[in-house]
Fold:
Amino acid sequence: MEIADERIRYAIEHTEVLKLPKQTLATFGTTNVDYYLLTEPVYTELVNQQETVIRAGKVSSERPRIVTPTYLTKLEGFTENARRYIELLAREHPHAPGLLYSYKNEPKELTIVSDPLNVVASRLNEKIDREGEKLAAIIKGVDELWDVSLLKFISQLTEGSLGSNIAELRKRGLLDIDRAGIPREARLRIEELFELVKQGLADPAKLKIELDRWDLFEEYEDRFLSLFRRR
Structure:
C-alpha cells in the first residue's frame, strides 16, 4: 500500500499543466475540455531516442451541483477515511453548501512521435492558439500513471473555476438554504426531475434517489406517487 501511495505521490509531483483552458468550467451547463496528455515512454532509458506519447481525449464536466455534508453521506464510492470526514462535517455543519463536480473522461487516440516532449508541447500550443481553441489543455504527465496526471489536471481545473461558479450561484440566490436545510438550487433540481419524469424523459428511480438523499421523500411522496397514477 505504501509503495502504491509513493508512486501516486511521485506522479502528482511530476505532473505539470503546461496549458490551461482559457475559459473556466460553466456554472449552468456542460463543459467539454479537449486535452493532450504528454508523457515520455517508460522504455525511454532503454533506447537511444527521444519519443513522446500523446494521449488525446475529452473531459466533460456536468453542471456543478450544490450539496451539503448531509447529502454527501448518502453517496457511494468514498473510502472509509473520506466517509468518516464527511460524517464529521455533517455533524458539525449539516447544511453548509458546497459544490459537487462530476466528470467523464473520453479517450480519443494515443500516438507516439519521435520528438522530445517540449517540442511536441510547443507544436500543440501553437496549434491550439492558431485554431482559437478556448477549451483545450496540454498536460505533462507520468506514463505509467497517466490517469493520475489527468486527475491532477481536473483538480486544478476545478479549483480555478470554483470562485466564479460560487459567485454566479450566490448572485442568483441558489446557495440560499431553506428552513429544512435544503439549498434553493437543490429544490429547483428536484422540480426539473419531476418535469422530466412527467414527460417520460427521466427514470423515476433517479428522482426517488435524489429525494432520499435529501431526506425529502416523505415531503414529496404524494406528488411522486401521482406520477404513476396518471400513467
